[in-house]
Amino acid sequence: MGPLIPNGVIPVEWDSIIAILIGIAFGFVLEASGFSSSRKLAGQFYGYDFAVLKVFFTAALVSVIGVYYMDYLGYLDVTQLYVHPFYLWGAIIGGVIMGVGFVAAGFCPGTSLCAVAIGKIDAIVYVGGIMVGVFIFSEMYTVFEPIYNGYFYGNVTLEDSLGINPYWFVFIFSMIAIVAFVVADMVRKRVKKVFY
Amino acid sequence: MKTWLVFEALGVLIGAFISGGLNGRIGWRVQHSPNITSKRRLIFALGGGVLFGLGAQIARGCTSGAALSGMAVLSTGGFITMFAIFGSAYAFAYFFRKNWI
């Protein structure tokens, strides 16, 4: 039956309307969780606030369990879903650059938009920075082209790359997340409190 | 402009504005640690934004688009991007500690 739009259950014209509704829900939940604060986001890297880490991994787990459970029940065909492509060095180098940007600015693009919506000037500057970064990428495309288009392994899942059973992987991943949450709480109690 | 991404980004702005409005968090301000100046905060926000924009282009997505959405379908690229982002942020956190704690 699912995914709903590609299989014609919902007409394709609804695409943009559903996108804006999902966007509103996403923005509302992010802002209501306090993720429009760069100091809260940075807390996970210094051990004084792990809310972002917990929400991030909970979100990933809920979606992956939901996707595979609905696939198991026959409501969703997981093979029809878009799988983020795997460009080995693009993912690693891009990710490392993003990590430095993350800890320098305390925002990721989604949360920065929430902060822009409530008038944080640092977030507006940050979004301006993102546009400059995208502009630099476009201008220097020939420099980045080998890692951007090279080392391509297809739109693969961990099932294809590692040959593991996805159900077992999701189970182990959930256990790792629970252990990580407990450890995060222990770290937070030991670290000096930061008020913001 | 006729792509769902534009509408989703607009939706995020609307949703966050509603939540911020309901909770009285709307207002022009620069949020930073009391140990640093607003100017320093804005410079680091700009630099971080440039890096994030560049990195997100190279990796074809950010924490939401590549890491979170990728992990939802067990994409190998999504997991590698996630580990690279968080690994490097923890590795470099030491150098930016004055900005936050």
Number of domains of chain A: 2
Tell me the Rg of chain A in angstroms.
19 Å
Number of helices of chain A: 9
Termini separation of chain A (Å)? 47 Å
Shape of chain A: globular
Kindly state the percentage of residues in helix of chain A.
55-70%
Give the termini distance of chain B in whole angstroms.
41 Å
Order of helices and strands of chain A: HHHHHHHHH
* Largest beta-sheet characterization of chain A: none
General shape of chain B: globular
* DSSP helix fraction of chain B: over 70%
Describe this structure in words.
- The complex is a heterodimer of chains A (196) and B (101).
- Helix content of chain A is 69%, strand content 0%.
- Chain A has helices spanning 15-32, 38-46, 51-73, 88-105, 109-117, 121-139, 141-149, 158-162, 166-190.
- The mean pLDDT of chain A is 92.
- Chain B is mainly alpha-helical.
- Chain B has five helices and no strands.
- Chain B is globular.
- At the A-B interface, helix 1, helix 2, helix 3, helix 4 and helix 5 of A face helix 1, helix 2, helix 3, helix 4 and helix 5 of B.
Outline the secondary-structure elements.
The complex is a heterodimer of chains A (196) and B (101).
Chain A: H1 15-32, H2 38-46, H3 51-73, H4 88-105, H5 109-117, H6 121-139, H7 141-149, H8 158-162, H9 166-190
Helix pairs in contact in A: 1-5, 3-9, 5-6
Chain B: H1 4-22, H2 38-58, H3 63-72, H4 76-92, H5 97-100
